[in-house]
Write a sequence for this structure.
């Protein structure tokens, strides 16, 4: 296991290294003076000259890359043109916001998706089966930003039940400890703030969780159907076990691996969906950061966030893979 | 071999009712796109600020069937013209992705060795990021606009297609007719184009169809973020971005209908794509 994790860690390191080369080259090869792209269009000649000296912009491309890498390894991804803050500091600050939203979206997606999938498989070809599979199909065909807008229109504007965006209303304050608002508010026993933060999470989580929910429901259904035809299910039934025990203990446990794989991949890919969901709900996470950076051509910020997101996704995938071997003792990593 | 596989796939797909419904939806939107100037009741770009945010048929207003947007433009006409843009973007992006992915996949699978290694590592790296993020970054570098969005989306689809084509190429490459072609001294390039390519075509059609739906979604997302189609182009995603502020005033139609148009088009491609995939998978065939 240790050997496996070490091997994967090296692999992740190489991938991130390669991502950094590619993103570096793409940005350097973009038309225009790299000093201007890095410092912004309105930078003074002095700033541009300092930029060229600091990042070695007159030197060959490969030398430039290693200068950049030297800075990056020290945690210096440069300064954002837009906010004049260190890119890494901003990314680290915003990451818990995205993490909280993603975890919530995933909980929503897994609970509903697995439940719908199991019921659909057990009551195959029933009304519930058809309805939930049609909903799942709509879920993957729908633009999630449109779903988000519809949710705001119905639940925030028409019914006035939930907030339209943000993480917390202005009258509440939470001492940031983990930066996960739900956890922080619980730690200081501030229940009104907890409820408020929870209310802010509901709509974005539904919007972000819908696509994974649809995938998980479809995978759970087909995986359960596969398992339900196995001999050991017939054995369990014939020895007189009640249907609930057969489904929960014998079928679901064996159907779990494909479901977990799907959930893991979906969780990593939530970072993509977060870009759109966060923009609509003005959620101050990595997604809004990268959209702002791209819109303003804030290259240091774009470069930093891509590498950061690639690293987060790689780590999530690693954690999911390690998790497998605990769930299924048949899986051994060498 | 090529003909029979394709024909068999279509025969099975024809029996699949949901796939046929998908095909119907696709044909419907293609018809709308082609006939846009004939069926659109108004010019999609003409503004009429005196007539903005007017409701449509539900308020017994017949002139603007689906209402008007914040510039007083007819929403129905904009959706009809938008079909042209979304379908074009979907098809062209996938064609770019297929051309790139197919070339990379066939070359990697057929030549093997270090070429295969280099190509597949690049594919792995591209897989380590969500496709919409890749597309956004690509647009940041290429510049915004519909044409660049198409290229960006196309490039992000290439890795998936390259993987599929590569594995199919390896399977085809083990056939005796490839060995025979090699034995009589046919150049590699000719073997790839004449012997390998036709045999990976059927799988390309299936994945191409499935990808068009997601390409349309991605293009709408880029348009929504202001990185794809630029105003006043009646692109569905850009229409949603344009009208987002009108929802607070209760003008729900501005945001609802363009989204439904995206949903139905993508649903069409997903249904047909699922049907085609089921038909090519012998394990699933019996169930259809």
């Amino acid at each position: 296991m240790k050997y496996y994790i070490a091997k994967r860690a090296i692999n992740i390191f190489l991938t991130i290294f390669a991502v950094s080369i590619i993103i570096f080259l793409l940005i350097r090869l973009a038309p225009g003076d790299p000093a201007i792209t890095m410092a912004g269009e309105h930078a003074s000649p002095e700033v541009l000259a300092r930029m060229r000296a600091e990042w070695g912009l007159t030197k060959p491309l490969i030398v430039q890359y290693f200068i950049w890498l030297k800075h990056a390894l020290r945690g210096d991804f440069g300064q954002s043109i837009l906010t004049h803050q260190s890119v890494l500091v901003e990314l680290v600050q915003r990451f818990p916001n995205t993490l909280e939203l993603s975890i919530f979206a995933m909980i929503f997606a897994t609970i509903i998706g697995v439940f719908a999938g199991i019921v659909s498989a057990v009551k195959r070809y029933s009304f519930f089966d058809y309805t939930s599979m049609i909903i799942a199909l709509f879920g993957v065909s729908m633009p999630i930003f449109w779903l988000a807008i519809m949710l705001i229109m119905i639940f925030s504007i028409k019914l006035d039940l939930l907030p339209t965006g943000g993480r917390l209303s202005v009258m509440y304050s939470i001492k940031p400890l983990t930066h996960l608002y739900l956890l922080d508010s619980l730690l200081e026993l501030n229940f009104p703030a907890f409820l408020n933060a929870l209310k802010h999470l509901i709509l974005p989580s539904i919007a972000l969780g819908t696509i994974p929910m649809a995938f998980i429901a479809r995978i759970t259904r087909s995986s359960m159907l596969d398992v339900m035809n196995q001999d050991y299910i017939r054995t369990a039934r014939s020895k007189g076990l009640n249907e609930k025990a057969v489904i929960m203990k014998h079928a679901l446990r064996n159907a779990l691996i494909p479901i977990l794989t799907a959930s893991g991949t979906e969780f990593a890919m939530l970072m993509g969906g977060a870009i759109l969901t966060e923009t609509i709900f003005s959620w101050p996470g990595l997604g809004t950061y990268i959209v702002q950076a791209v819109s303003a051509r804030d290259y240091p910020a774009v470069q930093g966030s891509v590498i950061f997101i690639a690293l987060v996704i790689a780590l999530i995938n690693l954690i999911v893979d390690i998790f497998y071997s605990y769930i299924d003792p048949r899986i051994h990593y060498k | 071999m090529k003909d029979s596989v394709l024909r068999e796939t279509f025969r099975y797909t024809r029996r699949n009712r949901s796939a046929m419904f998908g095909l119907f939806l696709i044909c419907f939107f293609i018809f709308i796109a082609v006939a846009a100037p004939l069926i659109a009741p108004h010019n999609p770009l003409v503004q009429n600020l005196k007539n903005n945010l007017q409701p449509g048929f539900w308020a017994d207003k017949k002139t603007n069937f689906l209402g008007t947007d914040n510039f007083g433009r007819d929403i129905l006409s904009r959706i009809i013209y938008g079909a042209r843009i979304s379908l074009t973007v979907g098809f062209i992006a996938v064609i770019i992705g297929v051309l790139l992915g197919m070339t990379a996949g066939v070359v990697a699978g057929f030549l093997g060795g270090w070429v295969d290694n280099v190509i597949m590592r690049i594919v792995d790296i591209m897989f380590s990021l969500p496709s919409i993020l890749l597309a956004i970054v690509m647009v940041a570098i290429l510049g915004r606009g519909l044409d660049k969005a198409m290229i960006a989306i196309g490039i992000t689809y290439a890795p998936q297609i390259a993987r599929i084509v590569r594995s199919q190429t390896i399977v085809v490459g083990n056939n005796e007719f490839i060995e025979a072609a090699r034995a009589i001294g046919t150049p590699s390039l000719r073997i790839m184009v004449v012997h390998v390519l036709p045999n990976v075509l059927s799988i390309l059609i299936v994945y191409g169809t499935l990808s068009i739906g997601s390409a349309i979604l991605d293009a709408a997302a880029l348009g929504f973020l202001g990185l794809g189609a630029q105003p006043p182009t009646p692109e569905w995603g850009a229409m949603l971005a344009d009208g987002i502020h009108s929802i607070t005033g209760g003008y729900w139609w501005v945001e609802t209908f363009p989204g439904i148009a995206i949903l139905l088009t993508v649903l069409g491609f997903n249904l047909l794509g699922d049907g085609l995939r089921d038909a090519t998978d012998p394990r699933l065939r019996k169930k259809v």
